[in-house]
Each structure stands twice: as C-alpha cells, then as structure tokens.
Amino acid sequence: MIQWWQILLLTLYSAYQICDELTIVSSAGSPVFAGFITGLVMGDVTTGLFIGGSLQLVVLGVGTFGGASRIDATSGAVLATAFSVGTGIDQELAISAIAVPVAALLVYTDVLGRFSTTYFAHRIDKHVENFNYKGIEINYLLGAIPWALSRALPVFLALSFGGNAVQSAADWIQNNAQWMADGLILAGRMLPGVGFAILLRYLPVKKNLTYLGLGFAITAMLTTLYGYIGTLAGGVGVVSEIAEALGGAQFNGLPMIGIAVIGFALAGISYKNAVNAPVAAASTQSESGEIEDDEI
C-alpha cells in the first residue's frame, strides 16, 4: 500500500513539476524524470524508469504551441508508477490502464489552470499601469498556485482515495478478464512505437534521411557489437576471477568511448551546419536580392 508520506512527497513533486516545466525548464517535469522520482519514493526505481521512459517515448513527438494543451504524461507516470509498485500491477498494464487515461483526463485540469491564471494576469496589467513593481512580483508568484493545484490536487486525490479502487479493478481483471489484461499490456507495449511514429511524422525526415540512416546503422551495429561483447564478458569474467586468484592482472569493463566519439562527431556536424546556415541562406538570393528558395 501507499504510505501517507509517499502521498505527500508525490503531491509536492506534482505541484513543482508543472512550475518547473513552465519556468526553470530543468527537465524535472518530463515523464522519465517523474518516473524516476516516483520510483525513488516508492522504493522501485527500475519500475519508475520503465514507466517514465515508456511515457516519454509516447509524447516524444507531441508539443504545445501558444495556449494549446497536451496530455499530461508526467502526472500519468507518477500515478502509474505509484500504483504499479504499491499494488503490484504489471508495468505495461499500469501504462495502458492508468497512465494513458490519467494523462488524457488531466488535459481538463490543465485548461482550468490556464484559465485561472488570467485573474492574476489582469491584476499584473493593473499594477503595470501604476508602476507597482512589488504588486507585479507578488501576483506573478501567485499565478503559480493554480498551475500547481492543477497537478497536485488530482494526484493527491487519486493516491489517497484511488488505491483500493485500483487494487479491486486489477484483481477483477486478473481473476475474471485476463484477455482484457493481455490486450491492455499489448497496447502499453505499442505506445512507444506510436510516439516514434508521431515524431517521425513531424520531423524533416526526407531532408535528413542520411542522418536517420546513419543513426539506425550505428545503433544496429553497436547493439550487435555490445551483444557479442556481453557474451564474451561472461567468459572473461571467469578468466578474471582466476587471474585475481593467482595474483595476476584484473580485467576492466569496456568503456563507452565508441558511443561518446560518435556523439561528439554528430554534434560537430550539427554545429558546422548551424554555422554555415547564414551562408547557405545568402546563396539562395538572386542579384536583385529576391529570395528564390522557400527556406531561409
């Protein structure tokens, strides 16, 4: 079961994460971070990272523009991880049966939070006219309260009163509708793929197809390479133990220098492209100064 102090900590984190996402932007409001924090509080970081990472992939290609709202995958990660650890629900089942519905429902509290802050915005406008800087600061800080409550209140109510309901529903599905559980688990496993599909849909894939192919090839090769190395490491470990017993040298694990070098190379390519972008833009202009291409 979920303890009162765990509910308190997760409620406080839920209040903070949305404010961080809107102001500091330290990634503390991301689903994977929420899964890590919740897993840390609940005592199962592995489950938290799995659920948070899965939901991070789901919203990988989803963004907000202007006043638009999106599903609150961060709060979904908090509740799914808490109930998965606290009640023993399967991780994939928690993602599809808890995280996704919660993330969708909290769109409404997000809209309510945005709507409530207009009260403080109008007060700030009034203080701007009167040059009341202290009033501007106070109302700016007060505007964070509706945002914090839009996440903290639903999470608190769900953790406080929803535990028994979630446990009862999970037990009923397990005992009477295993086919439903299997379907929900399958859906949970497919969600990260949906997130990747959305991301690829909006990324300029055709324009940067070479980079996509390069990344796929490198990932495939490294996966195969380190898979073989992992198998070899088992044998090397035995040899290492024997060598240590005989007073010989000690073997160390293979460093991730290869991945670091590849990342550094790709970062260098990106930097060169950014530096050369103004030159490329200037080259698209005709002698009369008219831009002939549709991209700058």
UniProtKB/TrEMBL annotation:
One of its GO terms (biological process) is phosphoenolpyruvate-dependent sugar phosphotransferase system. The chain crosses the membrane at residues 95-117, 138-159, 179-202, 209-229, 249-269. Pfam families: EII-Sor. It comes from the Bacteria. Keywords: Cell membrane, Membrane, Phosphotransferase system, Sugar transport, Transmembrane, Transmembrane helix, Transport. The keyword Membrane applies. GO terms for cellular component: plasma membrane. InterPro entries: GatZ_KbaZ_carbometab, PTS_IIC_man. It is found in: Cell membrane. It is a multi-pass membrane protein. This is PTS sugar transporter subunit IIC. It comes from Streptococcus zalophi. The lineage of its organism: Bacteria, Bacillati, Bacillota, Bacilli, Lactobacillales.
